[in-house]
């Protein structure tokens, strides 16, 4: 049997706290979603008055990032440059704010942010990602 690193709930909370700190620093209300390597929700946090549509969007960004093992910005950039095939791929969310989480070079989950502009979601996600390092 081989073994692999696992994203624990404590890790998810630490990542979410770092993302929340970045959002609060900028006065942004967002939803923060952390999923495991199977795309199952581990942790969800919604700032007061964040539109409820951002809940599913944050989860979808996290699931897309773990499913394709790359940031959702990759698909956003592809679509913006005319590679519309990304819109037909199942589970793709072509909007910045979803990032895979790596431990020891293995994807163990992902973080998804939604609630502000795409680049701002990405900025918050980067702050959460940095907390895992």
Features:
alpha+beta; Beta-Lactamase; 4 helices; 41% helix
Outline the structure in words.
The chain is an alpha+beta fold. It has a single domain, classed as 2-Layer Sandwich (Beta-Lactamase), CATH 3.30.450. It has 4 helices and 4 strands. A 4-stranded antiparallel sheet has the order 2-1-4-3. A hairpin with a 2-residue loop joins strand 3 (98-103) and strand 4 (106-114). Helix 1 (9-25) packs across helix 4 (118-130). It is globular.
CATH superfamily: Haem-degrading domain
Number of folding domains? 1
Name of the level-1 CATH class: Alpha Beta
Q: Helicity, in percent? A: 40-55%
- How confident is the prediction overall: mean pLDDT? 96
Number of helical stretches of at least 4 residues = 4
Strand coverage percent: 15-25%
Extract low-pLDDT stretches: none
| Measured distance between first and last alpha carbons | 27 Å
Please give the number of β-strands.
4
Shape: globular
Report on the biggest sheet.
4 strands, antiparallel
């Amino acid at each position: 049997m081989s073994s692999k690193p696992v994203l624990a709930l404590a890790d998810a909370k630490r990542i979410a706290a770092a993302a929340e700190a970045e959002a609060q620093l900028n006065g942004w209300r967002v939803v923060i979603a952390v999923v495991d390597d199977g795309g199952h929700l581990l942790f969800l946090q919604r700032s007061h008055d964040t539109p409820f549509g951002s809940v599913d969007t944050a989860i979808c960004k996290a699931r897309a990032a773990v499913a394709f093992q790359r940031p959702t910005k990759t698909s956003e950039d592809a679509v913006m440059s005319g590679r519309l095939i990304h819109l037909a791929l199942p589970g793709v969310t072509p909007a910045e704010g979803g990032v895979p989480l790596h431990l020891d070079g293995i994807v163990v989950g992902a973080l998804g942010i939604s609630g502000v502009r795409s680049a701002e979601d990405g900025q918050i996600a980067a702050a959460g990602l940095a907390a895992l390092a």
